[in-house]
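Intended use. Records like the one below are meant for learning the mapping from a protein sequence to its folded structure. Do not use them to infer anything beyond what is encoded.
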Amino acid sequence: MRTMHKNLLRHSAIIPVAATAAIPVTLASCSSTKEATDEDKPLNIVYIMTDDHTAQMMSCYDTRFIETPNLDRIAADGVRFTNSFVANSLSGPSRACMLTGKHSHANGFTDNTTCVFDASQPTFPRYLQEAGYQTAIFGKWHLESLPQGFDKWEIVPGQGDYYNPDFIMQTGDTVQVHGYLTDLITDKSLDWLDKGRDPEKPFCILIHHKAIHRDWLADTADLQLYEDRTFALPDNFYDNYEGRQAAAEQEMSIIKDMDLIYDLKMDRADKNSALKQQYHKYIGRMDSAQRAAWDAFYDPIIKDFYDADLKGNELAEWKYQRYMRDYAKAVKSLDDNVGRVLDYLEQHDLLDNTLVVYTSDQGFYMGEHGWFDKRFMYEESFRTPLIMRLPKGYERRGDIQQMVQNIDYAPTFMEIAGLDVPADMQGVSLLPLLKGENPDDWRNALYYHFHEYPAEHMVKRHYGVSNNRYKLIHFYNDIDKWELYDLKEDPKEMNNIYGKPGTEEVTRQMMQELKRLQEQYDDPIRHTYPID
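Structure written out for the chain above:
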């Protein structure tokens, strides 16, 4: 099935590739790779990014819930960042930060509701392409424009569909492809690695999955998994948000806001919900065999659920268990496909000369504070997993504890490719850390800014600063509230100590650091600081 891609993009203001000027770069020749020794060849980059995959659901970070053996392979053979964060915990903005090495206000893509990413602006794929790299992206783009700086791209419209998805092609068509999306993105990526590139040139491929994004539709092959597992309820699942107005006013509660049909698949002809029509749109893409397997699995669960007529805490905890199981099943397919990529690189002798990176566009709430989704600067969504398998010559192994952020990826890829890092990139290269160095002048605080409100889940706009001991957040716009947390004494961020006796000096220091970072990054949205 083919349709023109322009109807699948919310905005039509797209700048053509031909209109973009070449970007000057400095590189120790990529063009002479035929004659170069293996040691002289520029390094390849395989960047795998998922959506809403949180560290709690990766066994190399957290062994409480599920096993992710292939992701663990990356960490075991390389490094695991234990203090990895995002600049804006939202899919499109996070991707824009990653591509540009700049905070949201600087790259122009602050939220998913009003912005179009200017793909003609400098990004690390464009710099690499200008330097002689072959560049490709397959899967989720989610920036309301078309990719530039890539020799090959095939992307899903918007969020994409798990089953029999559409792909926007470089030809100008949109093509529906049969299969499960996580498999298909990997198929396309491996096909390009195997047949679509020049093996004499270095490459950078971005493998961007929809998984594990809401509404967590598992591959039919994995539907039976985790059904015998009871997941431990977070001890703050029934958080009452005392002293935290912004946390109380969101719409991402498992108890109140998780849709029984759309999210938890409890669909029945006589039952309705706000998102039932959207759920039918998703499962309506299934073919007869897929739908038969789906119904065979869910029909007995649906019957048992409505027969039980659960209420109160029993209903809330039932919803939590179904959510965890569905999410875990989507992770299983993702982990299997990461294994396929690793196996291909190993079988084709590419591992020694390739940096393999796995991360997510942000973290996610797995029932902490009673929530699903992301957006807040609280730890579960501010943090994001980041693991890397390092090429030959980089001997660092184990944990890296320095504070890093997704604006650091672009300068890292630039430097590992032998390029100068542009002065306007706001992130810093992680290369010294990958070489085993511990720079004395490494950052000790990070800046965060969430812009999207009012919008889905109704999380208030806020910005803040964290130094891994204390975190200061300011919620603004239609609210003016400050929050301060001692992450050592209160790692689950249950006790807002802002304004409490004895916190004056810490508050003053954090205010000064917040002001310094807003000035350093030239964020135009600033407010009066109660304490200077």
